[in-house]
Amino acid sequence: MSAPTFIIFSIILFQLLFASQPSHRILTSAANGSWQLLQKSIGVSAMHMQLLRNDHVIMFDRTDFGPSSLPLPNGKCRNDPNDTALKVDCTAHSVEYDVLANKFRALMVQTDVWCSSGSVTPDGNLVQTGGFNDGERRVRVFNPCTTCDWQEIPNGLAVKRWYATNHRLPDGRQIVVGGRGQFNYEFVPKDIISNKINLPFLSETNDKGIENNLYPFVFLNVDGNLFIFANNRAILFDYVNNKVVKTYPTIPGGDPRSYPSTGSAVLLPLKLKAPAIQAEVLVCGGAPKGSYVQALKNKFIQALNTCARMTITDPIPQWVMETMPVARVMGDMILLPNGNVLLINGAGSGSAGWELGRDPVLSPLLYRPYNQIGKRFETQTPTTIPRMYHSTAALLRDGRVLVGGSNPHAFYNFTGVLFPTELSLEAFSPAYLDAGFNNLRPTIVAPKSMSTIRYRKKATVQVVTTGDVAENLVSVTMVAPPFNTHSFSQNQRLLVLGNDKVTALGNSRYKIEFTTPASGNLAPSGFYLLFVVHQDIPSQAIWVKLF
Predict the structure, then answer these.
(1) 3-state secondary structure of 33
(2) Per DSSP, what are the bridge partners of residue 233?
(3) To the nearest 10°, the Cα dihedral for 375, 381, 387, 390?
(4) What is the pLDDT of residues 121-179, one digit of tens each?
């Protein structure tokens, strides 16, 4: 290779390995939120997404897509004789995105991470479990640091896990629930219980030949038991004693909400100052019965336009139905720091699966859970990029929502298809980030980010705000950043701590006293985003470690 050619090649390689600066292309006004294109291409389609404590986001797709558009650094190649696409692959299938610098770097996964699951440990490491082919029993760990890469643990799982769900537990372990052909659960790490444990509920909710119970919606209830939803119904499960504590009613209408009839779900914000803490689950969207089979025949049925909401702590719980302004399948539900819910991504008809979705839903919805029924949904500013099957979304520390992914094809496909493989990253800025609210917006000045807080303690945070402060409308909230894939954010949790007292310190500075969560049943130990919300306008967050 001649010297000029080598120089040109080096420049191109450098540009591929490190991202360009942000384009700052605002698509629309901020009245109902705004969009910004962050990267035209990160080289990898973001099928899975997790924000870490260093404000970096880990994303990955699958190894058997064939070559990606991002080379591995320093001539590194992945040698995998079991891979179904490439035995030797010198391109990346995972990236680390630096939110603050708007840059990314290539990471290397050795085995297939396709349709896997994960969660963050109490010390802030990402633990990812399962996948496909030679990755189906692997456990992979990513430790946040500037030069770190994936570490893999062979046979870290008791059984194959593909399309499973993880949740962090009060004792620091993760429970891994279900997966294709797995009507059971297990724990990671396997230092206490090393075997799978049968869970008949998963076989009972399996629709033969269709499934409709993959990536079950799992939430830690305030009593320490697990709420597990699959297909169209749920149980409250005592995982310590392997016992079903309660069986919840089927959602009215009986339509499925789990993969491939993919809806989404959130545990609504937990108000910790309430005399009795209630837990509510909201399930939105999905596909009517038969949609998956019909989509295989190129008949695309309109998605579900309903949400079902239930207080799971009630003695006699019942689903309450609500109607969305638009039908949606494969949508994501993201808890915002002020307690509202953002519904984003997805399609208006069809189901999850290769080539099975149609009618992209470009407009997010804002759901205000404390408004009256009929006044809870607000349509937001649309994007211009369809985010279909295999799209992702994650809340960032500055209050934006990062959006990526969309690949409804068995391989990377950029031409001659309805919805090309999408490699871009966008950010949606909810209306609370509009500059018109800057006089209300608190800025946290103490403590510093990465501080520690302990359970059941009095704590303080100091903020500066330029406008007048309505003390009764100031609240501290904490968000557990989730692992997002396939329209469900695993381990997502928002705690409303409120305030015990607000004291003016002078020079627009205020001290806010609050009480930390009482136990790991309310908030498993680990890293959280701590926000101060004033009149529905959140500050940027700081990272805190709860233990």
Answers:
(1) strand
(2) 230
(3) -50
(4) 999 999 999 999 999 999 999 999 999 999 999 999 999 999 999 999 999 999 999 99
